[in-house]
Write a structure and sequence with these properties.
Blueprint: H1 4-48, E1 54-57, E2 60-67, H2 80-104, H3 110-132, E3 136-142, H4 154-172, H5 174-177, H6 191-227, H7 232-283, H8 300-338
Helix pairs in contact: 1-3, 2-3, 2-7, 3-4, 6-7, 7-8
């Protein structure tokens, strides 16, 4: 009813849709812990924002505390602008790193990936506090009047749960995380292409960073200047730490983009390099197979290599059969000449 081209097209579309649905289902499972962690943390903090006094439940105590620093009050002594902007930007930076790591993970370890989601969900919960309120709401204290823990919140506790899930996954699934047959012996297989790819990503990142720096620097400078009537001491007090922190984040982000470009370009150049080696070895008569690594692009090259190998084997067999046929004919003629028919 349908031609072979239409059937092939339908099969390709079906495989694509099936793969897409599996990936969407997997990403839903991975992102759900992040969303739930952030949501539960927001609900508990909105409840804790109206707490008054101390509420004791044995060793568990609820008391409202405004944390102007990081986890357990770290960096609370820094200037407000530097502290709030830096910690909030650091949270957004970690979110980008989270997305990159989730995309580049070579295996589908749900425990590891969900652990990362819980960890980032807790971090985003505290980042949201700093963006909305300028401080983090802590309300949980464990202990008694003699000995007690620092105040923390549910996001802090869930972050430790995320760390535990990640460590457990690394210990239990170490062989799956770094399989022997997926190790990279050589990352720079096409150094010209790969460096161009890396510097292109870095260039885009630095360009966006520069645009953001110009906007944020001028905005903050004008705002502080109007609030302080042009007091240069106060302007420099807030702007110099901001610029130093911003440049540090931009340099770190550029280094990550370079590493990302190295990995992604290898996933492009690596399969092509492996396919070239396969063709070269096959034409030399070597019996090898093309096996690409997990996460590589152009996975269809494996099927193409198998087809080429089968066609060459068929051509080789036909060539051998054609070479044997004349020899058989010569043998038959010699037999006839040495054994003449009786009666002649």
């Amino acid at each position: 009813m349908f031609g072979p081209d239409v059937k092939d097209f339908v099969e390709v579309v079906y495989d694509f849709l099936e793969t897409s649905l599996m990936q969407r289902r997997e990403w839903f499972i991975v992102l759900l812990p992040l969303i739930l962690t952030w949501f539960v943390d927001r609900i508990t903090k909105l409840w804790a924002a109206d707490l008054g006094g101390i509420h004791n439940y044995g060793l568990l105590n609820f008391v409202l505390h405004h944390n102007h620093g990081a986890m357990l009050g770290l960096f609370s002594e820094l200037p407000a602008v530097l502290r709030i902007v830096s910690l909030s930007t650091g949270g957004a930076f970690l979110l980008c790193i989270y997305a990159i790591v989730q995309y580049l993970l070579p295996i589908k370890s749900l425990l590891l990936r969900c652990g990362l989601s819980v960890l980032i969900g807790g971090i985003l919960g505290n980042v949201t506090d700093r963006i909305v309120w300028g401080y983090v709401v802590d309300f949980i204290v464990i202990g008694n009047p003699t000995f007690s823990s620092p105040a923390f919140n549910l996001a802090d506790a869930l972050q430790w749960l995320g760390y535990l899930m990640i460590v457990t996954a690394i210990v239990k699934e170490g062989e799956k995380l770094w399989p022997e047959n997926n190790h990279r012996k050589q990352y720079w297989v096409n150094i010209t292409f790969q460096l161009r790819y890396c510097f292109l990503l870095m260039g885009i990142g630095l360009a966006l960073s520069l645009i953001s720096l110009v906007f944020s620097y001028t905005y903050i400078r004008v705002s502080i200047s109007e609030l302080t009537a042009g007091n240069n001491y106060l302007i420099n007090k807030f702007l110099i730490p901001f610029v130093i922190t911003y440049i540090s984040i931009a340099v770190g982000f550029s280094a990550i983009l370079f590493t990302l470009g190295k990995i992604m370009s290898h996933r492009i150049a690596g399969p092509l390099y492996a396919f070239e080696r396969f063709l070269d070895d096959t034409l030399k008569g070597k019996d090898i197979e093309l096996k690409l690594r997990v996460g590589d692009q152009f996975k269809h090259l494996e099927e193409l290599a198998l087809t080429i190998k089968q066609k060459l084997n068929e051509a080789s067999k036909k060539g051998q059969a054609a070479a044997v046929t004349p020899e058989i004919n010569i043998v038959e003629i010699e037999i006839k000449n040495t054994n003449p028919v009786q009666g002649e």
